[in-house]
Amino acid sequence: MKYRDGNLFLDEKEVELLSLTFLSDVEASYPASEFIHGLSEVQAGAKTHIQEIAHQQTPERRRSLQIDILKQLISTCEEFKDRGYAAAQATGCSIQLH
């Protein structure tokens, strides 16, 4: 991932991984603050969904699998946020969320 002029540019493998994670096409560049904010929203939604699943009456195995998948999603988002912040820092910049 590279940072330039307020934007984050993902390499081919990062685009592929995020596309697989979100099951949709992902662009190769985003305004940095929007990218980080969007990942934070996904994480918050996943955490809320984990709480909802934990209170369901579905079989334990199914709930456990759902929760594990959501935790992996949260972890992937955190990894990409870290990459974005590191890319900005490498250029002497910081990402300001709006």
Largest sheet strand order: 1-2-3
Ends apart, CA distance between termini: 21 Å
* Sheet having the most strands: 3 strands, antiparallel
Low-pLDDT ranges: none
Mean pLDDT: 94
Characterization of the model:
With 98 residues, this protein is mainly alpha-helical. The protein is 66% helix and 9% strand. It contains 3 helices and 3 strands; from the N terminus they run E-E-H-E-H-H. It has a 3-stranded antiparallel β-sheet. It is elongated and about 50 Å long. The two termini are 21 Å apart. The mean pLDDT is 94.
Q: What are the SSEs and their pairings?
A:
Blueprint: E1 2-4, E2 7-9, H1 12-22, E3 29-31, H2 32-54, H3 60-90
Helix pairs in contact: 2-3
How would you sum up this structure in a few lines?
The protein has three helices and three strands; from the N terminus they run ββαβαα.
Features of the shown structure:
98 residues; mainly alpha; 3-stranded antiparallel beta sheet; 9% strand
